[in-house]
């Protein structure tokens, strides 16, 4: 069974940074592109970016690329999302996703709240 | 922002009614998927590669379309189908783009 479990969310002050993790299991992690999607409260889904199997290709949404850095550790079956200079507009549920011709599996999501 | 327009934004259907949701895609994408999201839960892949049903999806659902217009159809609406549905295009520029979402309620 494919499992994606995010962690590292919580309350963070505006302007600070935060790093999310996603522990993957139930599939061969280093065979897949992985990505992050977020959803602000009451809003739709927003793709953040993706990373290929050996981290040689990382792509971001054009509107978000200066705020986020995606990385992965294949030895630990873990995906990361480094977020910087957070603002209230970044308050959202952040989902780790597996990608196979689009998103095929979702994590349960982790809430990030940016507030003073 | 890259968001694919979906129509309608919200709708209500009676049990047994036929439902069609439209996604207006970008010409740069290749694959079209649909995701179902129920309140308070993470989305699930529902339909992939335009018309293939994900595992466990009832066969009253179908997907179709080509070019810049794609459709999710429910042949006979059931209570459990109430959810928000998002289309999602792959492999264009940017690589993944989501639709604006359609909230489907039971009447």
Describe this structure in words.
The complex is a heterodimer of chains A (116) and B (107). Chain A is built from no helices and eleven strands. The termini of chain A are far apart. Chain A is globular and about 40 Å long. Chain A has strands at 3-7, 10-12, 18-25, 33-39, 45-51, 58-60, 68-73, 78-83, 92-99, 103-106, 110-114. Chain A is 0% helix and 53% strand. With 116 residues, chain A is mainly beta. The radius of gyration of chain B is 13 Å and the shape is globular. Chain B is an all-beta fold. In chain B, strand 4 (31-37) and strand 5 form a beta hairpin. Classes of the chains: A mainly beta (116), B mainly beta (107).
How do you describe this structure in short?
Chain A has 116 residues and is an all-beta fold.
SSE layout and pairing:
The complex is a heterodimer of chains A (116) and B (107).
Chain A: E1 3-7, E2 10-12, E3 18-25, E4 33-39, E5 45-51, E6 58-60, E7 68-73, E8 78-83, E9 92-99, E10 103-106, E11 110-114
Parallel strand pairs in A: 2-11
Antiparallel strand pairs in A: 1-3, 3-8, 4-5, 4-9, 5-6, 7-8, 9-10, 9-11
Chain B: E1 6-7, E2 10-13, E3 19-24, E4 31-37, E5 44-48, E6 52-53, E7 61-66, E8 69-74, E9 83-90, E10 96-98, E11 102-106
Which two chains share the most extensive interface? A-B, 22 and 25 residues
- The amount of helix of chain B comes to under 10%
* Sheet/helix structural class of chain B: mainly beta
Give the N-terminus to C-terminus distance of chain B in angstroms.
33 Å
Strand percentage of chain B lies at over 45%
Report the mean per-residue pLDDT of chain A as an integer.
97
Q: In percent, how much strand structure appears in the residues of chain A?
A: over 45%
- N-end to C-end Cα span of chain A: 39 Å
Descriptors for this entry?
heterodimer, A: mainly beta, four-stranded antiparallel beta sheet, 53% strand, B: mainly beta, seven-stranded mixed beta sheet, 11 strands, 0% helix
């Amino acid at each position: 069974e494919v499992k994606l479990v995010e962690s590292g969310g919580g309350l963070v002050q505006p302007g600070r940074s935060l790093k999310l993790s996603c522990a993957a299991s139930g599939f061969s992690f280093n065979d897949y592109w992985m990505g992050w999607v977020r959803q602000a409260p009451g809003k739709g889904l927003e793709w953040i970016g993706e990373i290929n199997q050996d981290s040689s290709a990382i792509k971001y949404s054009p509107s978000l690329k200066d705020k986020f850095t995606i990385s992965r550790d294949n030895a630990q079956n873990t995906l990361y999302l480094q977020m910087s200079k957070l603002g209230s507009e970044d308050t959202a549920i952040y989902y780790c996703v597996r990608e196979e011709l689009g998103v095929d599996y979702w994590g349960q999501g982790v809430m990030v709240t940016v507030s003073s | 922002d890259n968001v694919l327009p979906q129509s309608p934004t919200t709708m209500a259907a009676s049990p047994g009614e036929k439902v069609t949701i439209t996604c207006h895609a970008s010409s740069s994408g290749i694959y079209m998927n649909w995701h179902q999201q129920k309140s308070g839960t993470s989305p699930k892949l529902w339909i992939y590669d335009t018309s293939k049903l994900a595992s466990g999806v009832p066969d009253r659902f179908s997907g179709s379309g080509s070019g810049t217009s794609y459709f999710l159809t429910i042949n006979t609406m059931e209570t459990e189908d109430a959810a928000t549905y998002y289309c999602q295009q792959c492999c264009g520029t940017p690589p993944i783009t989501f639709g604006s979402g359609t909230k489907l309620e039971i009447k």
